[in-house]
Amino acid sequence: MKIGLVQQTCSNDKKANIEKSVKGIAECAAQGAELVVLQELHCGIYFCQAEDTAMFDLAEPIPGPDTETFSAIAKQYGVVLVTSLFEKRAPGLYHNTAVVFEKDGSIAGKYRKMHIPDDPAYYEKFYFTPGDLGFEPIQTSVGKLGVLVCWDQWYPEAARLMALAGAEMLIYPTAIGWESTDPQVEKERQHGAWFISQRGHAVANGLPVITVNRTGHEGDWSGVTNGIQFWGQSFVAGPQGEILYLASPDQEENVVVEIDKKRTEDVRRIWPFFRDRRIDYYGDLTKRYRD
Questions:
Q1: CA distances from 21 to 74, 184, 206, 238 (A)
Q2: What residues are labeled active site?
């Protein structure tokens, strides 16, 4: 199965951002991609660097103009398409939402980001209400997609629940990078932790993992920080954590990577983690902490 990854920079020009995404989708489709994955919030800047009520104007309802655009693109190029949109559900109620389109342009399903960070330059709790759709894979013509979003990628519970519900792969649209004042050694630790955590999800669940991150520098319009240098390095890992593709840290890329879905069955036979789980002793996982 061929999967397209679109790693791009973004600006305040929404039209230009969408045109860039569409160009990437077209290039991936021309290379035979059946599934194309875009990065987190690809229609605009990563506006969560500061708390600014004007940024809520970027949100749109689902369905709405953005979904109409990407629906038409999915149909035009005959691909299953994973997008990441800023959803206006109601006045004062917004979500960070991944919308998946079928090859005919219909909406196959959506996922609302469940884990919402609140860190310097990542003030997402100001903007996003935690998701309420659970960890449910989205059925498409190319398989059951375990779509999660960015901060979700740090949580093994999210990956496991998707896998237990039959997801055939885990997909993470992402926007993560470095604040410039961090020393180089800290930057390397942050990226290494991010990389190994997701490869760990692939291993623990015997599934491919597809992560598409943005690249480029985006300034902090509030002037509080020096902005974020998104570290790119979108990647695809196989079900033993093996790296099938790793993108550059600072270049835009439209690339197609082939995965073998059958390897999940093969790997789970030799590493039967699902068989050996002690579910009779896992009840405390629903507690905040074991005091």
A1: 12, 31, 30, 25
A2: 40, 113, 150
How long, in residues, is the chain?
291
Q: Assess whether pLDDT exceeds 90 at residue 180.
A: no
Return the amino acid letter for 91. P
| 101-118 residue pLDDT tens | 999 999 999 999 999 999
DSSP β-bridge partners for residue 253: 7
Q: How many CB atoms neighbour CB 290 within 10 A?
A: 6
The two three-digit tokens of residue 256, written as one number: 């197609």
Report the DSSP beta bridge partners of residue 229.
178, 217
Cα 26 to Cα 30: distance, rounded to the nearest angstrom: 6
Structural domains in the chain, sorted by start: 2-277 (3.60.110.10)
For residue 159, CA distances in Å to 109, 166, 179, 216, 254 come to 18, 11, 27, 28, 26
pLDDT value for 152: 98
- Average pLDDT value over all residues in the chain: 97
Q: What is the 3-state secondary structure (H, E, C) of 109-160?
A: EEEECCCCCCECCECHHHCCCCCCCCCCCEEECCEEEEECCHHHHHCHHHHH
- Res 232 pLDDT > 90: yes
- Please give the single-letter amino acid code of residue 147: V
* Nearest CA among 158, 157, 155, 136 for reference residue 145: 136
Q: Is 164 exposed, middle or buried (0-12, 13-18, 19+ CB in 10 A)?
A: middle
